[in-house]
Write a structure and sequence with these properties.
With 307 residues, this protein is an alpha/beta fold. It is built from eight helices and 15 strands.
Length: 307
């Protein structure tokens, strides 16, 4: 099969489009013919992109862990799924991803693809939308009527955090580049503040979702009311700062959850959740896709088109 691989740890410059051995499904696994895969620019900096959980090198590696495709084969012990089914899912970061014509995924971690979305649109969901859902529902436990601030409302996760916060009944404010204000309001934000946060009142919010980190995270504690919840996706927050501000601060890494993926697919098919593709590249140009990090681009996720 054709795949995008890196034989040595590094950045996009290490990625090569080449022939690679086709995988075979192991126990409990499905072989998926990949139609589209979404990328996360930071993944090439993560240890788990290059090693096993116990630290062993596993190069050459295949990146891109959000997959949408068709079941092409199954291990003999798999039930509840059939060859030909259109599926999507999040692939664990310590195994080969979906920047390839074929990939294997634990069958129990796959969900049915939204019927009304293309494979490219569907590929934006497994990491980004699932992260937003888990941040809001599982960690922040957002209640209807609560005031929510989403930092980075036009980013890969932010576009889903804005929408899902509104779907869950939150009153949403988002930050981002000024040029994205109208787009983010269309996603469900009641208010938009240009990046930098000037004009955000201290103690105003019940929940803050930080997709940016750094100075944005540092400034987020004081924006919450006493007892408010801060969920950050960049790095573990300061518990000392949280105590001083009287808030709860949390960090987590998204985990595969087919039940939540099914919920997200239902929201897409109901027309309530929009999948946002920022830009797309053929798999053969995968290296160029990763090299586009940091350049101006439309809101949403970057997707590799495989079939």
């Amino acid at each position: 099969m054709k795949a995008l691989r890196a034989h040595v740890r590094g950045g996009p410059e290490r990625l090569v489009y080449e022939e690679a051995p086709a995988p075979a499904p192991g126990p409990g696994e499905a072989l998926v013919a990949v139609h589209a895969a979404a990328i996360t620019f930071a993944e090439l900096t993560w240890d788990l992109s290059w090693t096993t959980k116990d630290g062993r090198d596993r190069t050459p590696v295949i990146p891109a862990h959000e997959v949408s495709g068709t079941v092409a084969g199954l291990a003999g012990d798999v039930t509840g799924i059939a060859v030909g089914d259109e599926v999507y899912g999040l692939i664990d970061f310590d195994r080969d991803g979906a920047a390839a014509e074929l990939t294997t995924v634990p069958a129990a971690e796959l969900a049915a693809k939204p019927r009304t979305a293309s494979h490219a649109q569907t590929a934006t969901l497994p990491l980004a939308a699932l992260t937003a859902w888990q941040a809001l529902a599982d960690y922040a436990a957002l209640e209807p009527g609560e005031r929510v601030l989403v930092h980075g409302g036009a980013g890969g996760v932010g576009v889903f955090a804005v929408q899902l916060a509104a779907i869950l009944g939150g009153r949403v404010t988002a930050t981002g580049r000024g040029r994205d204000a109208s787009f983010v309001r269309d996603l469900g934000a009641e208010a938009f503040v240009s990046a930098g946060g000037e004009g955000l009142a201290p103690g105003r919010f019940d929940v803050v979702i930080d997709t940016v980190g750094g100075a944005v995270l540092d400034a987020s504690y004081e924006l919450l009311r006493s007892g408010g919840r801060l969920v950050t996706l960049s790095a573990p927050p300061s518990q000392e700062r949280a105590r001083e501000s009287g808030v709860h601060a949390m960090f987590f890494v998204v985990t595969p959850d087919p039940g939540e993926l099914a919920q997200l697919a239902k929201l897409v098919d109901e027309g309530r959740l929009r999948a946002v593709v920022s830009q797309s590249f053929p798999l053969s140009d995968g290296r160029r896709a990763y090299e586009s990090a940091g350049r101006p681009r439309p809101p949403g996720k970057t997707v590799l088109l495989v079939r």
